[in-house]
Specification:
15 helices; globular; Rossmann fold; 6-stranded parallel β-sheet; 22 strands; alpha/beta; Alpha-Beta Plaits
């Protein structure tokens, strides 16, 4: 597939890496910074073009006339929108994806039509990260909370700890603990490596366990992995940027929220936008300020500034001073792995990992509805729709035990209409089923895609 990425910032560079190296697409990246493109080309097998992302001449040089997808990820909403307009008008590009940061634009659905700005998919990394953090606050103790089938099914990752009902017991005993609720363990990581999950696999303290169930049963399954934690009532947000302000607005009606912003003008602006949250002017890494604001009584400290080093330092300090749980926005995977392994930060949030799934869902072959990237991109959870009949599909009309899945892949749930079925070996896939899979090795994604492609016949 020929993909044109406009913008080589953090999101654009991550998209280029994923779509070229891991997805084997023909990728061209456009940016005005020649030095950034050179560095990117040194690492990846891609084409690069220097120039303004919305100029027709630049898009022509970048190969827009042959592109299957244009992904506009510059820092300017207006540039991204115009670039999609140019790609549609001059080159009839089939799929156009744009990064839209402004909430005002995101709310204006009527603006994004074929007669106005022909953007097929709008992505707001800030909104996605905000929703991601909200779920982690709603389910304290979880490392990840991922929605499928319009929220009817959730995949949750949690670290098993002493006091969890399933810790020290085999996976198969889960149905004895919660006989009235269907669910299953999709994957277990021990010391960073995936295990082959069997009914007699024993869950150990420290294991990273991913389980799937209907939305209403998630808290019950979390209780199996760790002692149930108290709800989050007090939150401190370091950074009043787009993500911090969005999160404060989302939480302020049900939670006591304080925002620490070092820029006085920005602090004034967001204080006028918020109704209940308290906005403080200061440095979130100032020990005296954190002590003065009773950081030891805070349930969740969220470091969400644009500087990952500042996020790491402020989160570590908050943890040291007594905050119950801390999370930090960290762009570099090596930094994230380091702080999580050391235990100094409870959750490292990767905006690229949160965002890339939204892009992959529109790049994959077959009818892929949703993609969630996990384990720094090494693993994936996928929702795909099965089409066709037994004669034209490798999945439809077959029991899960008869479907040839690559190593490390498992079908974990099937959603049929309003019914959620936790996958069993004898579960038969039917046309229009939403099939949810977990892959510990995403390098074999092409074999998963082939399952959900419809052909004339399969022998």
């Amino acid at each position: 597939m020929r993909i044109l990425i406009l913008g080589a910032g953090q999101v654009g560079s991550s998209a280029a890496h994923s779509l070229s190296r891991e997805e084997a697409n023909e990728v061209t990246v456009v940016d005005m910074r020649a030095d950034v493109l050179r560095e990117l080309q040194d690492r990846l097998d891609i084409r690069t073009v220097v120039g303004h992302a919305a100029y027709p001449e630049v898009l022509e040089r970048a190969g827009a006339s042959d592109a299957d997808i244009v992904i506009a990820l510059t820092d300017s909403d207006e540039t991204n929108m115009v670039a999609c307009q140019v790609a549609y008008t001059l080159y009839h590009t089939p799929t156009k994806i744009a990064r839209i940061r402004s909430a005002e634009y995101m709310r204006a659905d009527a603006l994004f039509t074929q007669d106005a700005f022909p953007v097929d998919v709008r992505i707001s990394p800030e909104q996605l990260v905000c929703q991601y953090v909200e779920q982690l606050i709603l389910f304290p103790g979880a490392l990840q909370v991922l929605d499928f089938a319009n929220g009817r099914v959730r995949l949750v990752g949690a670290r098993a700890q002493e006091g969890g009902l399933l810790v020290g017991r085999p996976v198969d005993s889960l149905k004895e603990h919660i006989p009235e609720a269907e669910g299953r363990i999709a994957a277990i990581y021990r010391e960073g490596m995936p295990l082959a999950v069997a009914p007699d696999t024993v869950v150990r303290e420290g294991d990273e366990v991913y389980f799937i169930s209907e939305r209403r049963n998630i808290r019950r399954f979390l209780d199996e992995m760790r002692m149930l934690e108290a709800p989050v009532n007090r939150v401190v947000i370091a950074g009043g940027g787009n993500i911090g302000a969005r999160l404060a607005h989302a939480l302020e009606h049900d939670t006591q929220v304080k925002v620490i912003e070092r820029n006085p003008e920005r602090a004034r602006v967001i204080s006028e936008q918020l109704n209940k949250a308290i906005v403080l002017v200061g440095d979130a890494a100032d020990e005296d300020l954190l002590i003065e604001e009773n950081i030891d009584s805070v349930d969740m400290f969220c470091a969400l500034t644009n500087a990952e080093e500042a996020n790491i330092l402020s989160a570590m300090l908050a943890k040291k001073l007594g905050a119950r749980k801390v999370m930090a926005l960290i762009n570099r995977p090596s930094y994230a792995e380091l702080v999580e392994a050391s235990g100094t930060i409870d959750i490292a949030i990767s905006p690229q990992q949160v965002t890339i799934g939204s892009l992959l869902a529109h790049v994959r072959r077959g009818d892929v509805v949703k993609v969630h990237s996990l384990k720094r991109g090494a693993a994936e959870a996928i929702e795909a729709v099965a089409h066709g009949a037994r004669e034209s599909s490798r999945a439809v009309g077959r029991a899960i035990s008869d479907i040839e899945l690559p190593p490390g892949a498992a079908i974990v749930a099937v959603v049929r209409g309003e019914q959620v079925h936790i996958a069993r070996p004898d579960t038969v896939i039917e046309t229009d089923d939403h099939v949810i899979l977990f892959m510990t090795d995403r390098r074999r994604i092409d074999r998963i895609e082939a399952l959900f492609e419809v052909g004339v016949t399969f022998v």
